[in-house]
Design a protein that fits this description.
This protein has 95 residues and is mainly α. The chain contains three helices and no strands. Helix 2 packs antiparallel against helix 3. The protein is flat.
Length: 95
């Protein structure tokens, strides 16, 4: 059975993964002078959470949470973009 500390690292890692995916998506769509700074901030946040987890002995839980959060947010972002794309008309569709 997992203890409360492990669950906290999983949640912290998942939150970091979602934040990482969201900031990556924003960085690719809105290029500005702040994009390099935001990249360093993004990596700094991920590093801070994973290093803190490593020092506390919860690196596996935090890394698993980060991966799950990054994967879930990435799938959500891709599916949202796919579902909002205008429908395409194919030749010979009869319309």
């Amino acid at each position: 059975m997992t203890d409360l500390t492990t669950m906290a690292w999983i949640v912290a890692g998942a939150g970091t993964g979602v934040l990482h995916a969201t900031m990556l998506q924003q960085a690719t769509h809105r290029l500005s002078a702040w994009t390099p700074v935001m990249g360093m901030l993004r990596l700094g946040i991920v590093a801070a959470v994973l290093i803190s987890a490593a020092l506390a002995g919860g690196i596996l839980a935090a890394a698993a949470g980060w991966f799950a959060g990054l994967l879930a947010a990435s799938v959500r972002i891709v599916m949202r973009r796919t579902n909002t794309a205008p429908p395409t008309r194919h030749a010979g569709s009869g319309d």
